[in-house]
Amino acid sequence: MKTSFVVSVCLALFAAVAVSAPAAKGPAPKCPISGKPSNPDVSVEFAGGNVWFCCEKCQAAFKGDSAKFAAKAHQQMVSTGQLTQKGCPFSGGPVKAGTELDIGGASVGFCCNNCKGKVAKAGPDEQVTMVFGNISKGFAPAK
Q: Residue 43 in contact with residue 52, Cβ under 8 Å?
């Protein structure tokens, strides 16, 4: 009788811990300042969402000059689902199937292979700047 009670208590505790544990997620988005994994608890409201940082020092640097880090902040917001793509980042036109590229961890589509080709030829940092520097045509806050 004691054994079944102990087993029941252990199972109940295990179930409670399993239910309260956070779901496993992918790697944390990179801090737009340092490139290190970010912490959602260290964030700033920006462009209709929140930008996450690795530490308060990076958070302060962003607050001091957000324009300098805007492209990487926008990229992080797309990769975390806070911004969604509404059109080609260059033309604003509809995205054509098969034109997607991974830009810093965010999948981005283009209106044509010419726009895709411009970005594909660039280096990783230049890609982020090209695609996420001005988000007005291609991205909007997620609803």
A: yes
Q: How do the pLDDT tens digits run along the chain, 143 residues long?
A: 454 444 343 434 333 333 222 233 457 799 999 999 999 999 999 998 999 999 999 999 999 999 999 999 999 999 999 999 999 999 999 999 999 999 988 999 999 999 999 999 999 999 999 999 999 999 999 98
pTM of the full structure: 0.79
Structure tokens at 26: 């992918």
SS3 of residue 17 by DSSP: helix
DSSP-assigned states of every residue in 47-100 = TTEEEEESSHHHHHHHHH-GGGGHHHHHHHHHHTTSEEE-S-TTT-PPPPTT--
Q: Are 79 and 131 in contact (CB under 8 A)?
A: no
Hey, where are the domains in the chain? 26-141
